[in-house]
Specification:
With 76 residues, the protein is an alpha+beta fold. Helix content is 51%, strand content 13%.
Length: 76
């Protein structure tokens, strides 16, 4: 099953976090690409971040980022 465009956008936003930690946050500004703003909102709705505009990763978000980074290493 291929990733949807929305899922790829969510992965891009998630990948902006430098490490799987609740101590490092990001901010998606109002002038960012609309698809990135929407992706950040969806990540928040799914419980991966603590704010609609990025914020900090939740425990679930940290786990997701760890898995994303592991996948990137496998594909490199």
């Amino acid at each position: 099953m291929p990733f949807s465009a929305n899922q790829l956008d969510e992965l891009k936003v998630l990948n902006h976090y430098s490490q799987p930690s609740s101590m490092t946050g990001i901010k998606i500004h109002h002038d960012a690409a609309p698809e990135m703003i929407e992706a950040a909102k969806r990540l928040h709705e799914k419980g991966l971040t603590d704010h609609q505009d990025g914020g900090y990763l939740t425990d679930l978000g940290c786990e997701a980022l760890e898995n994303l980074q592991a996948l990137e290493r496998l594909l490199a």
